[in-house]
Amino acid sequence: MKISKKMETAINKQIAAEFFSAYLYLAMSGWFESENWKGCAHWMTKQANEEVAHAMKFFHYIVARGGTMELLAIPKPKAVWKHPIDAFSDAYAHEIEVTKMINGLVDTAKKEADTATESFLNWYIDEQVEEEEHASEIVDKLEKIGESKNGLFMLDHQLGKRE
Ligand SMILES: [Fe+2]
Ligand SMILES: [Fe+2]
Prior knowledge:
Elements: H1 5-34, H2 38-64, H3 84-111, H4 115-145, H5 149-159
The structure holds fe (ii) ion (FE2) (2 copies).
């Protein structure tokens, strides 16, 4: 069954949102690079790549359901933060917003009686739990670290090991 126009439009918007997430994390990566927090920069680049993968998964899904993929404009992200904790707090807040967007897509799928999309979205629901958990864990560590330079160096080293 071909995807409905409403569902297609909603997913196309989500594709732009996933690319915006990639943009935001790349901006954070650039800022971390400029501050010489190379491990944090590495973590953010990996995160940006994951967001592109999320977008591509939607991309293939629309095609598989006989829909039309439309690439919408991506807004310019913020580029400067005061402290690593501000960037990671923004990342965490952003993931909560994305979770709300995915929940909105589930609502649309239910209204459209689109069980295939509802089922497909389960992957994103699980993924958002992980995304929120990872970001909030780092924010929590940064809160504990406070202004300890040693702590920051250790965390930066740890985040630099992300596969
Ligand atoms: Fe995502
Ligand atoms: Fe994400």
